User: Fold this.
Amino acid sequence: MAGTCVIGLQWGDEAKGKLVDLLTAQFDIVVRYQGGANAGHTVVSGDTTYKLHQIPSGVLTPGVMNVVGPGVVLNPPVMIQEMDRLLSQGVPLEDNLMLSDRAHVVLPWHIAEDQVLDKNTADGESIGTTLRGIGPCYRDKVGRSYAVRLGDLYRDTFQQHVERIVEAKKEVLVMQNGHAVSLDARKIFEEFRIYADRLQPYVADTTAYLLDAVEAGKRLLFEGAQGALLDVDHGTYPFVTSSNSSGVGVSAGSGVPGRWIHKVIGVIKAYTTRVGGGPFPTELKDDIGNHIRERGREYGTTTGRPRRCGWFDAVAVRYTARLSGVDVLSLMMMDVLCELPEINICVAYEIDGKRTNVFPSHTDDLRRAKPVYETLPGWQQDVSQLRRLEDFPPNALAYIQRISQLVGRPVEVVSVGPDRQQTIFAHGAPVGV
Ligand code: GDP
Ligand code: IMO
Ligand code: MG
Assistant:
């Protein structure tokens, strides 16, 4: 009986996919419960790199069921592409993938709306979305009138439903865009009928399946997408994604009550990255930032965009670790900092001359936050081949310890490279259950 969650504690891309893949063998079921094709989770095994967007990262481990839950916004053509890619890489998908019939479907008008609306925040800065139609799809889900769930694709009323929505969306898009956007209801219906046929073997009532599973004592691993600072309610609003990407989203998105969740692993990088717009107090717009980007290969898995890079922000991570109910930390990318002579950690903010440890709730305040840094000596030694913490340079150990102290949680996993092998479990055994 165990529900364990893997949650990103920064602005996404903390290497959640790598950790989920490593832990999967200890579980019966891996569940994605929010987000959609905006996510890009990478798993590296030897010469093979797997990029997962909507399919859980447990899919590479035989004998484990992978569930895409009701809280995910599912893009059928992207799902089929992802399935085909995995099949071509020799990953079987029979009997190990389930898609919730309650999951909402991303349709072509959502992508069109994302392109039009992304620029319109109150302060004029673009959110810089992944343009995957995520926000518009979640908006329609909450709005209800124009929403389509996966189960709707198999109903006789689907064609009518599409025709009605397309008429309304054409008007909305003209209003928002100033000129017409071409949407052909018949074509969309025909196209999605083909997608629906392909996906049908996987579509199920995953809520009932998961409730039966927890009651039967099965072990569940929940794979978060994005990071807690992108949470729509608790993140750096409006520069967030449209779902609850912190630990608080697990139950709502999966349909599994909180009483079944027993452990939360917070995933952090040894520094910070962010893709898209929004405040980022510790951002480095200098040679050090460029160095981290190149060494860490910090370019988006989904969009290829260069990620903004900066120092580790302990104010932000202490906040998201508490918000997500984190028990232990998994510290990734320790190899990336190995050449730096000195490394900064943000231990507090100064806002309008006042020092604070509280992560501000308003973006305007976060924009004015000046990081207060503590400087630690670097270790200037390649750690990517190390497999035991005892062999780590003392300065690297001191850095890990300081992060743990500032965040208030033990570091149980340390990652020193993308490969599965480049991982150290502090207590020797994996930490999943
Ligand atoms: P996710 O979205 O949280 O799953 O993370 P991404 O896959 O988008 O980004 C993490 C990137 O870092 C991927 O390219 C991983 O292969 C890579 N990676 C994971 N762990 C490490 C590590 O410890 N060191 C380095 N250098 N790269 C890592
Ligand atoms: P994974 O799961 C990093 C960011 C986008 C943008 C904001 C809103 O790989 O960690 P959206 O398309 O969701 O409406 O974009 O959120 N974003 C991510 N950044 N990693 C992700 O996923 C992200 N998913 C969305 O860049 O700033
Ligand atoms: Mg990613």
About this structure: Residues 285 and 395 are 25 Å apart (CA to CA).
